[in-house]
Every structure is written in C-alpha cells, then in structure tokens.
Amino acid sequence: MSSQVxxxxxxxxxxxxxxxxxxxxxxxxxxxxxxxxxxxxxGEIFEPAPGRxxxxxxxxxxxxxxxxxxxxxxxxxxxxxxxxWTQEPFAAEIIDxxxxxxxxxxxxxxxxxxxxxxxxxxxGELEPRGDLLFVAAADEEGGGRYGASALVERRWDLVHIxxxxxxxxxxxxSYASEPxxxxxxxxxxxxxxVLTTTGTPGHGSAPxxxxxxxxxxxxxxxxxxxxxxxxxxxxxxxxxxxxxALEDELKEALTDPDQxxxxxxxL
Length: 267
Ligand SMILES: [Zn+2]
What we know:
Elements: H1 2-14, H2 29-39, E1 44-46, E2 54-59, E3 69-71, E4 94-95, E5 98-99, H3 108-122, E6 132-136, H4 148-154, H5 156-159, E7 163-165, H6 213-226, H7 235-243, H8 248-254, H9 257-265
Parallel strand pairs: 3-6, 3-7
Antiparallel strand pairs: 1-2, 2-6, 4-5
Helix pairs in contact: 1-3, 8-9
Bound molecules: zinc ion.
Zinc ion binds at residues 74, 106-107, 140, 167.
C-alpha cells in the first residue's frame, strides 16, 4: 500500500499543477486524469473554468442513517522559486528515503494517501456504512473560487456531507496517548487594506524638515510590526491547548493573554 502512495505522490508532483492565483494556472485536469486512471472509475468532474477540474466520487453507504464522511484533499500547489531549491522541484525524486518536490508536504502526500485509502471502496472490495465522499479539489491555494467554494455553491447536491477530513491534521499535533485530529472552527484570513499618507509637495533639493509623505508611510508600516496586537483567549483555544501534550507551564502561558506573546516568541 505504501508503495502505491509513493508512486501516486510522485506522479501528482510531476503533474505540476501550479496555482499562481490566476484563472489559467493550476490546470488540475492533469492530476484528475492521474486519479481516474488510478481508480479505474470515471467519477464526476466539476470544471468551472477551462482545465480547473475537481474530481468527485460519492459512494453510497449500506446504512441510510449512518453519518456521511468526506475526504477532501487538494490537487494544486503554490509556485516555486527554483533558486531556493536544492533539488528539481517537479522531479519527485526519492533522496535518502524521502520524496522531494513541490507539494510533497502540502498536500499531495495526503492526497495520495487518501486516494489509496478510498480505492477499495470504489472497486467494491469494501463498503462504507455511511456515504463516503472523495473530493480531489482544484484551487485550494488560490482561494477555492474554482474548487471547493464553487462546488459548495453550485453542486451542493453532490457534495453535501456530515463530516469532512482535509489537510488540517498536518503538521501532527502533540498527543499524550492517541492521535488528535483537530476540529476547525475558524480560519485566519487576509486583511487587505490600502494605506495612504499625505504630505506637502516640495523640491528634492530641500529635504530637511519637509512634510514628507513617504516618511509617514515608513513610520506607519514600522508601527504595524512593532505594536502588540491584542490577545483574546477563547474557550475553544483553551480546550485545544488543554488537549495537547504540553508542559503545564507552557499550557498556562498559552492560555494567559499576558504571557501568550512572550511564550510563543520563545518557542
Ligand atoms: Zn494545502
């Protein structure tokens, strides 16, 4: 089984479904074709823009009142600055027992493992109790407009589900006795903003004591990095920290708003 995961992972990396945020990038149809071939079952293709394919399989459960479960990996990867790589990013070579390449960690490793886990259900070797859904999604790295978001908006009939596993379980969490799969209740997001500073126009030959808009901009940007953002400890965060196998002292620091910043800075 693990050799299947490795060779599938290598092909997914080699497909180079690089998502740079533009509609034309990604071209996840390449990895959709790889998965269709691996499963030997066609599945349902969702393609909201040319080449931006997601692949969906819905396997009916044997018990109509059993909860349904979805495995939702993504197929795209973020762009590469080749100058920062010691290996060819899309060769997916095995070096010292590790597969190297863009997406080997986020998250084609999980995509390959989930596909291998789901295949016996698609070939009929195993039957799920509740409905089992496998969604290999496009465009996770660019906001999901051509993937998960569009699927939920346009094909809820196909992707409705009770429970869902995706990539949040990586990196592995510290645990005391058994693995912990975190439940996501929120996501950090981008706070896009436009900052404007104004000054008094003047001549470059007289820069001193001038009312320079650029100086105000630099100081404002510096202030953003230097000012302490408020910390609020929610009950969900406190429960999350409590469940982790951390030293008591660190647990305490991570749930005390006055200690949180210094303790994370020293980690
Ligand atoms: Zn990811």
